[in-house]
Amino acid sequence: MPKPSKTSQIATPKPVDEKITINLGCVDLGQIDLLVQEGFYANRTDMIRTAIRNQLSTHSEVVRQVVLRKTLVLGIQHYTEADLLAVQASGEKLQIRVLGLASIAPDVTPALALATIESLTVLGALHASPAVKAALMQRIR
């Protein structure tokens, strides 16, 4: 199955952080604020990021095994119009599985995405035009 071109991967801009919202109890939030106030962390975000990274590190072997078992691409996977036209010319369809960032270039049309992407599994973030996301909605797992 054709892979995205090396040049498209090089040209991919660095992804920005994704924003999430969490609900915390008052006691947990107070303890975070206390640690920030005492200088252990620069701010709430710094403490929460550190806690998340520590947990991910604790579970890194499980993550590694699941990535292998589910044949996920770990990191950034970028698809350009040229990549998808090559897939279309080969008569194949992609089953995209990414843990990280899956990016579909802005010039990819919904029709081309539908013709070339059989399924899309993203654990992390999907960057694509709203039209492409809408077209692929039934194929996103």
TrEMBL record:
Q: Which InterPro entries does the UniProt entry name for this protein? A: Arc_rbn_hlx_hlx (IPR013321), RHH_8 (IPR041088), Ribbon_hlx_hlx (IPR010985)
Ranges annotated as spanning the membrane:
none
SUPFAM superfamilies, alphabetized = Ribbon-helix-helix (SSF47598)
Q: Which Gene3D superfamilies match?
A: Met repressor-like
List, alphabetically, the PANTHER family matched.
BLL4998 PROTEIN (PTHR36215)
Q: What name is this protein filed under?
A: CopG family transcriptional regulator
- Write down the species: Polaromonas jejuensis
